[in-house]
Amino acid sequence: MPYKFQPGKMYMMPTHFGPSIGPRQGPEGRTFTCKDNPRTTSISVNFLTNREQLEALLPERFEVGAEPVVSVSASYMKEIEWLAGRGYNVLGVTFPVEFNGTVDQAKGNFLTVLWENLTDPILTGREQLGFSKIYCELPDPLTFEGDTHCTAGWLGFKFLDINVSNLKPRTEPSPSAEVDGQLHYKYMPRTGEWGTADSQYAVITPTGKSNAVVQEDLVGDGSLCWTPARWEDLPTFYQAVNAFAELEIKEFLGGSLTRSVGGSDISEQRILY
């Protein structure tokens, strides 16, 4: 007889083999506390850019926040419990925004895109959370004579270089504006009705829910360089890389390298109305 969906259980395609297994639902439905994992190294570079260029990247009901500062961050995660000890790497581009909905108002960094080098978190993050995740190659960073260098590419085409140098322990607390969380925009197309959305809305990852503990926090100089791409180079996301390559870099605002343990399963993710 045909199977039935179990109430309260999360499913993803293929649904025919029971509830899905992933970061928010493990074997037999157990959850993951994310207290001693993952072990993460994050490298970030910030720069001041043109407000009008960032506005062109935002959907309706969003506006650029107080300062048009772009953060490009690469994170390298190891010993992830929901992957049975394996890891993966990510690269995200964010900038501060304000969301003004019919019910909700929120401030935070808007995640324009999150590249990852593993299929499993891409699928769960896109479908369950509404993260704008896509694939690319993200080799581990190279550190030599005090400089740390990161790259991102796709099938042999390198589209980003990040470099941080002159790193020293942070002596003053990092400046932090009051934010509600990280903001995203979920869009899923409707099958057969091309150009029509099946789901389309803003979502937020609220602050204050992570178990991450920073073990090392270094700051210094930072720079980056995007390589403009043709359709032949990056057939499915050349327009994203080119949009970032076209951003005016008025001033680099430094770089950082942090090492931390712990995190969150992001089950607190919710829709903004």
Runs in which pLDDT lies below 50 for 5 or more consecutive residues are: none
Number of domains: 1
How much of the residues is beta strand, in percent?
A: 35-45%
Q: Count the helices. How many?
A: 3
Structural category is mainly beta
**Head-to-tail CA distance between termini:** 40 Å
* CATH superfamily membership: Acetoacetate decarboxylase-like
Largest sheet: 11 strands, mixed
Q: How many strands appear in the DSSP assignment?
A: 14
Taken in chain order, the helices and strands follow as: EHEEEEHEEEEEEEHEE
Question: Tell me, what is the CATH class?
Answer: Mainly Beta
Percentage of helical residues?
Answer: under 10%
Description:
The chain has one domain: Beta Barrel (Acetoacetate decarboxylase-like), CATH 2.40.400.10. The chain is 9% helix and 45% strand. It is built from three helices and 14 strands. The strands form two sheets. Strands 1, 2, 3, 4, 5, 6, 7, 8, 9, 12 and 13 form an eleven-stranded mixed sheet that branches. Strand 4 (88-100) and strand 5 form a beta hairpin. The model has no long low-confidence stretch (mean pLDDT 97).
